[in-house]
Amino acid sequence: MASETGIGASVKRKEDARFITGAGNYTDDINAPGQTHAVFVRSPYARARINGIDTAAAAATDGVVAVFTGADLAADEIGDLPCGWLVKSKDGSDMVAPPHPPIATEAVNYVGEPYAVVIGETLEAARNGAEAVDADFEERPAVVDLATAASADQIHESVPNNQAYDWELGDKAATDAAFDGAHHVATVDIVNNRLIPNAIEPRAALGEYDAAAGTYTLHTTSQNPHLERLVLAAFVNVAPEARLRVISPDVGGGFGSKIFVYAEETAVIWAAGKVRRPVKWRAERSESFLADAHGRDHVTTAQLALDQNGKFLGLRVKTKANMGAYLSTFASSVPTYLYGTLMAGQYTTPAIYVEVQSLYTNTAPVDAYRGAGRPEATYVVERCVETAAREMGIDPAEIRRRNFIQPGDFPYDTPVALTYDTGDYEASLDKALGHIDYAGFGARRAASESAGKKRGIGFSCYIEACGLAPSQVAISLGAGVGLFEVGEVRVDVTGSVTVVTGSHSHGQSHETTFAQIISDKLGVPFENVTVLHGDTGRSDYALGTYGSRSLAVGGSAIIKATDKIIAKGKKIAAHILEAQEDQMDFADGTFTVVDSNQSITFGEVAFAAYVPQNYPLEELEPGLSEKAFYDPPNFTYPAGAHICEVEVDPDTGVVDIVDFVAVDDFGHVVNPMIVEGQVHGGLAQGIGQALLEHGVYDDAGQLLSGSYMDYTMPRADDLPSFTVDTTVTPCTHNPLGVKGCGEAGAIGSTAAVMNAVTDALGVASVPMPATPETVWRAASARGSSAEGAERGE
Amino acid sequence: MEITLTVNGAAKAVDVPDNALLVDVLRESLGLTGTHVGCDTSQCGACVVHMNGDAVKSCTVLAGQADGADVTTIEGIGNPDDLHPMQEAFRDNHALQCGFCTPGMIMSAIDLVQKGGGALDEAAVRDGLEGNLCRCTGYHNIVKAVLAAQSSM
Ligand code: FES
Ligand code: FES
């Protein structure tokens, strides 16, 4: 049905009516009768031994209901917060994860780590109580610097050299051989700056315990409520899954940071059982800065070997990745299987060798943040490529063209364990070059020059592996869970449809996109489709939303269920029309006997299924409701070309993005309006990393960028409008031919910006974020030296 | 402390602690949860409402300061059947994703357009919304929406 609400249409969102009128239902909007309030008492030290915690004064504070420490949780056999992905080191040994009690017991290891929680009648009472908790800390030297963490003081007794693992991927010997035969080697040293996710809705939780039923209900800001329930039940030991319901209502952005199972939600649901009253908590923004999992934070040296024609021969990457103080839920997978595996980029580089040493420091845990590993990989590859192009005097578009995997090469096995199914990288690059008017760049640069400004252009041809994930592949690589998705299509008696998905929308617009699919496939009016999500009491066990997986995996599950609906509908229709099942056709909401004028509508079939009078009850169950699990056979591989043009004022160091073009191949697009919005948001985050954002700790492990005054979030006046376009090579292995669009903007853009900034300044590198001060220093250094790479024309 | 104020056209009297903030009055005492809290340093704008005709961050207004004031929140400017032109522009231009910044963003944008005399261009809109953070949209569609609403308001 090529309708105004079907697949491919920019349908206005169902979600918006409530959000624009203030009727959203976020966790903090929900209150339970008799609720208490939780306040966490957090470590002021980056590293300290806890010699004792005196809670007497806190407990005696007016309005305080209870005070709990880690010892109370331990006494109740509440377990540690686990990491769900086992990565092995080069020597085959398992990664080393320190114990991670939700509430610290013997030691605190980052500023902001909770060591007690106070439950009060009011928030104010809980705050007063929290101030009265008296802990005896013995401060120890903090390990903060990633580059030297391996040889620093040992943080955890069980973790020698502060090392989680020392991982490798690829063929070292082949890569060494490629470098031996190289005409040119380009080397880059990169610091991928630490980012703090900062969804505008802070994390929050409301825990309730029903003593009569023995059941727990947790409303929380989670991207994957089923995973939260699984971990709280199976590892943390709060309650068996069947007695624990986790609900993620409207969630105000996640970007990865709301995937993880954190101390606070854990303590809140446990405490609700202890005090036998609802317990509510909402993070202050300062708590979000301190205790949400951070992102990125790598130090890398990479080398690209090329022949005399600029063909890539080999890539060598050596990275140190910061894990923070503990191993967060999926932390181990981010700098490994979501990073090393992407080092081929869009190119035919035949030999690649990646080494990643993940280390602990006395900083907040680091885990997946929008793109998760893939932005870091893209940054490595695209900075290498750009550097090589400049050093060899080859046009940056041309050097990429010479190395692209060609459309005829798919399926393409990379040397780093992935098989790309499809793509046309040159098509995206060409379209992007057209949008940016590459031919006119020289004239624009000259015009800037004569106005005393420096203009630069930067490319980034990224690839990502999305649609996480083929379960067996993921499990064989260490994942502790399957990564399928579930979709349920319940046709109502009157033919309207309720869809229950295991995916979770925290801005992605599932209620609209999934309704479009149903409307398109079943011919049911868009208005008559309702999509439900975010409740373990409603859907089967599922994995939630991250890794741009909702449509490619969750949408595919819905399609599978829809196919079952149509198949059953054909049986019912054939019975009613007295035809053979294989003679039935279904299109535009009508079942038709082929080559006849006999037909019956979808609504009539639904009615017959629920009021089964003229119905083959001997062969067919009544009802019309189907469920399907979908496990993808491969990842999807969105890819694209981002080009950034900047103008730099060398006197002030201010970088002005004058044009940003993103051309992405997401396969088929269900709702172009929504997809463009996803790209815009990702671009803002990628540009934010390049120019503005930086999570900084001082030598003592104090977070210097702990508020919106110190951590520069991209604001409206920091950003340009974007030019966004698409090319299409449909994914070959899912029913919709879709690839996922949620992370592309954040993956591709950072390298494009930094390639543009370095091009403008004529310098080899500028550290991120390229703040005015940093850029001014780089520009001044360039001005005083004759050296500096020039862009090849 | 008892204060009286007009909220979305209705007279209200609430009894609150001396240190209560306007945002607490709205969210906790009056159950108007459309006004959000996104920070503790007055910098995200999720809490913006109109007070006596001006956009204010309700997390920085003490309840006492709002005594006698005329306050309009996101709930007071339109409803799904009769949207304010700014609400409509946000929907039509896909200017929201998770929706958390949206109430504050819409209230700031209305104030901006009302005071802009119809003369806002893209740069002026970007400048005028500098006090409102959105992590989802990259602002591209928000700017589009505000410019569209300028013509329809
Ligand atoms: S809540 Fe952030 S400015 Fe008011
Ligand atoms: S729409 Fe999510 S923060 Fe603006």
3D architecture notes:
The complex is a heterodimer of chains A (793) and B (153). Chain A has 793 residues and is of the alpha+beta class. Chain A has three domains: 16-22 and 484-630, Aldehyde oxidase/xanthine dehydrogenase, molybdopterin binding domain (Aldehyde Oxidoreductase, domain 4, 2-Layer Sandwich); 31-140 and 200-253 and 258-291, Alpha-Beta Complex (Aldehyde Oxidoreductase, domain 3), CATH 3.90.1170.50; 295-468 and 634-779, Aldehyde Oxidoreductase, domain 4 (2-Layer Sandwich), CATH 3.30.365. In chain A, 28% of the residues lie in helices and 23% in strands. Chain A contains 19 helices and 28 strands. In chain A, the strands form seven sheets. In chain A, strands 3-5-1-12-9-10-11 form a seven-stranded mixed beta sheet, with helices on both faces. In chain A, strand 27, helix 17 and strand 28 (723-727) form a beta-alpha-beta unit. In chain A, helix 14 (510-522) packs parallel to helix 15 (550-576). Residues 785-793 of chain A have low confidence and may be disordered. Chain B is of the alpha+beta class. Chain B has two domains: 2-76, Ubiquitin-like (UB roll), CATH 3.10.20.30; 85-152, DNA polymerase, domain 1 (Orthogonal Bundle), CATH 1.10.150. Helix content of chain B is 33%, strand content 15%. Chain B has five helices and five strands, in the order ββαβββαααα. Chain B has helices at residues 22-29, 85-92, 102-116, 122-128, 140-152, and strands at residues 2-7, 10-15, 48-51, 54-57, 70-72. A five-stranded mixed beta sheet of chain B has the order 2-1-5-3-4, sandwiched between helices. In chain B, strand 1 (2-7) and strand 2 form a beta hairpin. In chain B, helix 2 (85-92) packs across helix 5 (140-152) and helix 3 packs across helix 5 (140-152). Chain B is globular and about 45 Å long. The model of chain B has no long low-confidence stretch (mean pLDDT 97). The chains are: A alpha+beta (793), B alpha+beta (153). The complex binds FE2/S2 (inorganic) cluster (2 copies).
